[in-house]
Design a protein that fits this description.
The complex is a heterodimer.
Chain A: H1 2-33, H2 40-76, H3 79-85, H4 98-113, H5 116-128, H6 135-159, H7 163-180, H8 185-195, H9 201-215, H10 221-224, H11 228-275
Chain B: H1 2-33, H2 41-79, H3 83-99, H4 102-117, H5 125-156, H6 160-177, H7 180-192, H8 198-212, H9 218-222, H10 225-243
Classes of the chains: A mainly alpha, B mainly alpha.
């Protein structure tokens, strides 16, 4: 019962991690704002919940998500497994790792679509934009971005290319898109990069990257193992702007079509009038 | 009491629903593709149960305690309050939420393990802890700085894309000079910082400010704080890698 032995120490450690937020909030509340806190008892109880929650979460992470993520990455990159599913002949090529890419894609999409922070931001964006930005549309756009980013990131680890080339290329795409996107979407798109990588995604994805870097021959965990999260935060910026551009394009086309129809209607009406 | 219990059960179900897609993905790969069961299946299930329970308590506690007080403070500062205290609050909020971020703690620990195995730091508990703490402190400082700058941007009506682009240029330039080992960690730390604790608090602050100041569009000016909070850690951690 390793869990129970570890719990008190972890609880104490988490307490000291939470302390800064409590000090900041109450410090500002009492010294600067100088108003009484509404429902002080409820707030304090809530903070105790946060403390217990983080402790359980970290404990579960160490016991479940990290080991499973790492063991799956090891199994999916295991030479024996790869030999059994390979599509090329001779040495292993990057194509033979296709299950890794599919796994990365599925993990990215699966964790992002349900991400609470993303849902919160999507609801706010829907509210603030007066309904122009759909909650589900934004969530799907971001999830696709993360999924694609993780697949691309695993491909990078397999081929061993330096990550900053990919990131710099991504930055260039973001900058170009910024000029052509509807202006209102830009801050939201930039934000969605940071929102995606949640408490659940990060540990799983970090384990996948490190596992991949440990098993693919010639990769160093320190240089190649990190970086997946960076891809998962960059690609949603691109996909959200693309989503906005696409819906703008669709709107513009619908508008054009409508104008055209009106034009012909007016024309035929004018003809009719002339004839009359 | 009954109301609280109902809330707790519904957020437990919410956490379970949030974790369901990922459990499905893992099961699919284990059963269909790899065709083997993970080792220590019982331990994994207990661990997963702890994750669900932990997330539930965490989100429940946020909604009970942190959100109401965070939102009321954002509004109190937005409607009055001096510039200095507003910026100080923004900095403190970014710093305080990041230092306690579970995802960051997890990644900093992994990074310190990897750094120790690679021989960059001593392979002792103390050295690894120092390294992980240093990394967390760096990221937390950078997020505090980013949120304060983002608030200043809302107040002064700067255009977000130019600041982000300048940030990108700094990142690219620093990448050339930073040691290779830190680059991946630095780029990752941008995404790690902003999750369940930070995002709703910071979004509430931005939108609250943008709606309180006349002449600001909440859609254009209210968002963007998180973008800053994901960019600045990259710069600060690259700097951390160059110094240590």
């Amino acid at each position: 019962m390793q869990f129970i032995e570890e719990f008190p120490a972890l609880l104490a450690a988490t307490f000291f991690d939470i302390l800064p937020i409590a000090v900041i909030i109450f410090g500002f509340q009492f010294l600067i704002i100088r108003k009484r806190v509404k429902n002080l008892k409820k707030v304090l109880v809530g903070m105790v919940y946060v403390l217990i929650g983080i402790t359980f979460f970290l404990l579960g992470l160490e016991q479940a998500l990290f080991p499973v993520g790492r063991s799956m990455a090891e199994q999916l990159t295991n030479p024996e497994f790869l030999q059994s599913v390979r599509v090329t002949v001779g040495e292993l090529h990057w194509q033979d790792y296709y299950w890794v890419y599919i796994f990365a894609f599925a993990v990215g999409a699966g964790t992002t679509i349900a991400e609470p922070a993303l849902i919160a931001v999507a609801i706010k964006a829907n509210e603030v934009s007066g309904g122009a930005i759909g909650v589900l549309g934004l969530r799907v756009a971001v999830a696709m971005g993360v999924a694609f980013g993780l697949a691309l990131g695993s491909y990078r680890i397999v081929i061993g290319a330096p990550m900053h080339y990919f990131i710099i290329a991504g930055y260039v795409i973001v900058v170009i898109q910024t000029f052509f996107s509807p202006k209102l979407i830009v801050p939201l798109a930039y934000d969605s990069g940071g929102v995606t990588t949640s408490t659940v995604t990060v540990p799983l994805v970090a384990a996948l990257g490190l596992g991949l870097a440990e098993t693919v021959p010639g990769r160093s965990p320190l240089i190649d193992g990190f970086g997946l999260i960076a891809f998962a935060s960059l690609c949603p910026i691109i996909s959200v702007m693309a989503y906005a551009q696409l819906s703008e394009f669709k709107d513009a086309r619908a508008m054009k079509k409508q104008l055209k129809e009106e034009y012909y209607v007016n024309k035929s009406r004018a003809k009719q009038n002339r004839r009359d | 009491m009954k109301h609280t219990l109902n809330l707790f059960v519904s957020s437990l179900l919410g956490s379970l629903r949030d974790l369901l897609p990922i459990i499905l993905v893992i099961s699919f790969f284990q059963i269909i593709v790899l065709q083997q069961m993970p080792e220590n299946l019982i331990q994994t299930f207990i661990g997963l149960f702890f994750v669900v329970l932990g997330l539930t308590f965490f989100i429940f506690g946020l909604e009970q305690g942190l959100f109401p007080i965070g939102e009321s403070m954002a509004h109190a500062f937005a409607s009055k309050g001096s510039l200095f205290w507003l910026l100080a609050f923004a900095f403190a909020l970014g710093f305080g939420t990041t230092i306690a971020e579970p995802a960051l703690i997890a990644v900093a620990d992994e990074a310190s393990e990897v750094a120790a195995e690679a021989g960059h730091i001593e392979l002792s508990e103390q050295a690894m802890e120092n390294y992980a703490d240093g990394l967390r402190l760096t990221v937390a400082l950078s997020v505090g700085f980013a949120i304060a700058l983002g608030v200043l941007r809302i107040l002064l009506n700067w255009s977000i894309q130019y600041i982000i682009m300048i940030g990108y240029v700094i990142v690219i330039v620093m990448t050339w000079f930073a040691p290779d080992e830190i680059i991946g960690i630095a780029y990752d730390s941008g995404g790690v910082t902003t999750s369940t604790i930070t995002v709703p608090l910071v979004t509430a602050l931005g939108i609250g400010l943008a709606s309180a100041i006349s002449g600001r569009n909440p859609m254009l000016d209210g968002f963007g704080l998180i973008a800053f909070a994901s960019l600045f850690p990259i710069i600060f951690v690259l700097g951390y890698g160059m110094i240590f």
